[in-house]
Amino acid sequence: MTVNFSRHFSDRSKEMRASEVRELLKLLQVPDMISFAGGFPNPETFPAELIRQLVDDVLKKDGAQALQYGITEGYAPLREAVADRMAKRGIDTAKENVLIVSGSQQVIDLMGKIFIDPRDMVVVSAPTYLAALTGFGALQATFESIPIDANNMRMDIFEERMKRLAKRSNPPEIVYVLPNFQNPAGVTMPERSRRRLVDLASDYDFIILEDDPYGELRYVGEHIPPIKSFDDEGRVVYMSTFSKVLSPGLRVGWVLADTEILKKLVISKQSTDVCTNVLGQRIAHEYLVGGHIDPQIEKIKKVYSRKLSVMLAGMQEYMPEGIEWTKPEGGMFLWVTLPDSMDSGELLKRALRKKVAFVQGEAFFADPREGINTMRLNFTHPSDQMISEGLRRLGSVVNQELVSRWDKSSESEARKLEDAVKGSLIGKS
Questions:
Q1: Which region among 94-103, 293-302, 328-337, 414-423 has the lowest average model confidence (pLDDT)?
Q2: How far is Cα 314 from Cα 379, in angstroms, rounded to an integer?
Q3: How many CA atoms lie within 13 A of 114 on its CB side?
Q4: pTM here?
Q5: C-alpha distance across the termini of the chain, in Å
Q6: Angle in degrees, 0-180, between the axes of helices 155-165 and 191-204, rounded to the nearest 10
Q7: Above 50 in pLDDT, residue 265?
Q8: Could you tell me which CATH number the domain at 6-46+295-407 has?
């Protein structure tokens, strides 16, 4: 007998939606498929031999504790090392304000649990990180979307919206931003906008969640101080991860927060996973204090910078006129804008038949009616050769779609002209 469990599911679960990206990752198993869909670091950047040595050292020095449960706040020496690392990036913090998490994605869930009641509002950019939408959405948040431009979130529109939203009975609780090489668009917020955002947080009494997984992956230009570095009221919660600069499989990240907020995050985490992977934390600690992180980041940047150049060159060579794309200074993604009349969802179906995949842009918008003509491309995971070949395939699909639309448009115009001529002749008769 088949059981219908739908009546047992919570109201919250009914608003959950699957990640389009995670579904597309199944395509990696298809032979000859070239995927620009995932947000995967490239395995050639993983320091496997170094990690083996670090694991060996950790187990020899303190194997019993490294394999035991840990405290929820995280391994104290790692928290200290993270605080020291953050000081070099302009954030003055202490280890008491650092919580080690199971990848920075967990912070979105924890922040939602401590700040969001059903129908509370989160302000996001349009587009924004897909998992932020699914994470906050699972907690029944509502969203206010602010358009982006080459400078990330449009601060002029944001400020105008906040004046209106602040008058509501439930004004926004959290403003979620990815200031550096934003996922999915690759755009970066300038310093003046970061400072202004902190000022507005004070004026309108909201919390800023600064998501910075790519901040150290800058390939051209100068680093910009984190939003948190301009915060003197504790309104900015900063999150980052070792996933992009060591290994995503370790599932170790961190969050910096005001003492009052951190206490709530710790309590929430206790009921979620008790503690973060202890062995992973020990590995991350040895990685930091052993002086391995900066040389490793330079190796990663060299690989990714080259791949970005290959992708930009391929876009220039294979994409027809009328297609626009961002030119990021770092990170992992390119954002492509197609002509207004083109549907990237339909385009994806045709692209998959050519064995090339991407993520359709609408997945990154709170309003699914937006971003129909956009797509996200990842350049870090495919090989250089796959990037070039994948863009050749994708460019062919886009071009065929444009030609098809032109032919249909020309046929339609011809019919209109023919009908007009017939009408004119009938009138004369």
A1: 414-423
A2: 11
A3: 22
A4: 0.92
A5: 73
A6: 0
A7: yes
A8: 3.90.1150.10
